Amino acid sequence: MSPSPALSRFMGRTTTSITILGSTGSIGKSTLEVIALHSCYRVFALTANSNVATMLEQCLRFQPQFAVMVEEAAAELLESALQKQGIPTRVLCGEHALVEVASHRDADTVMAAIVGSAGLPPTLAAVQHSKKVLLANKEALVMAGELFMRTLAASNAILLPIDSEHNAVFQCLPPDSRLAGGDILGQGVRKVILTASGGPFRTLRVDQLGNVTPEQACRHPNWEMGKKISVDSATMMNKGLEIIEACFLFGISPQHVEVLIHPQSIVHSMVEYRDGSVIAQLGSTDMRIPIAYSLAWPQRITSGASFLDLTKQPDLQFFAPDLERFPCLRLGMEAAAQGGTAPTILNAANEIAVESFLKGEISFTDIPAIIAGVLAQMSCGKADTIDIIRQADEQARATARRLTVKSC
Fold first, then answer.
1. How far, in Å, CA of 284 to CA of 57, rounded?
2. β-strand partners of 196
3. Which of 31, 94, 300, 384 is packed most tightly, with the most Cβ within 10 A?
């Protein structure tokens, strides 16, 4: 099979220039660890919100052409520190600078790892400018999936999923249908199965969930992640968002996506075929594996992750999720089925509710209640333009804040 025109642009290159959106987060750090193992990758730009200390360390080691700090004060501190060290990296500031380095002509590949809605504009810009986009920011598809995929179809970009679940599905699909726009059902696929660990409260009594603390919610049993994604895992909202993301990535409806609780997190996801075959991707709980796979795709490179020894692993278990225990998963399923701006509203309300929970302003069980309240109060329409999406996002956030105050 000959490579697509989009893929042909990236094959045969001796050096790949990379922009990392969100380099100081866990995905950004893991990406840099993989890059450090291979001389064929060059860091073009690094971006962060306000973490000057980590960004300075990264700039000293990788010496990118650009470093972006969203907060102005952080940018000034970084620029001063780099000048003292004699590092020629140019420091840029503001959200517009994220778009600039994501769409820059000298950037071949963009790792989109900014958490939350802030990652949408630069990720969309990277797609518009036909980059190879490694998508770790699920909110870009959840908020604006229809617009995002339409933009992708009109560009010469390549979109590869970084989430361990979607990356696993990608690896299990027929080659002809892997890239966005492929007809996976036409290739014999019956359904996509997303696995979930169940988080830290999988076996906790439901009547005790209202008393759990942010510290407990962030203590994931298998993965080391940021606070927001850890809480999403504890509520299983992450799996609700991943259902929406899977529908857009693989061109399927929610009825063709199933979620299974798999506490061991060894099987990262599966694809079931019409003939009864189920193909699964297994690996250790290390995000460097999907990162390395996507960086080098369609080749494979060393990731630095440990190899999986199945003789030393516990028995593999699978359970159907309990929607009473995990109402956020049900809300995600419903938003996926409704479509339009429903996923945008869901995502925005969840971000505000999780933020309030982490601050100790609301309880763990208030999170799904607030999201459900926002969805009930807002009408959903078509998500045709970025203005409509932004308006729905802003309105949902304002509504969620009002409901949060009432819950305090």
1. 28
2. 261
3. 31
Domain residue spans in the chain? 5-161, 164-324, 339-400
Q: What is the pLDDT of residue 110?
A: 98
Which tokens belong to 56? Answer: 């300075």
Architecture per CATH, domain 5-161, reads as 3-Layer(aba) Sandwich (3.40)
Q: CA–CA separation, 123 vs 126, rounded Å?
A: 5
pLDDT at 390 over 60: yes
Give which of 230, 251, 69, 246 is closest to 165, Cα–Cα.
Answer: 246
pLDDT band at 111 (very low <50, low <70, confident <90, very high): very high
Between CA 271 and CA 341, with CA 187 as vertex, the angle to 5 degrees is 70
CATH architecture observed for domain 339-400: Orthogonal Bundle (1.10)
- Please determine, for residue 1, whether its predicted confidence score (pLDDT) is greater than 50: no
Tokens of 17: 């220039």
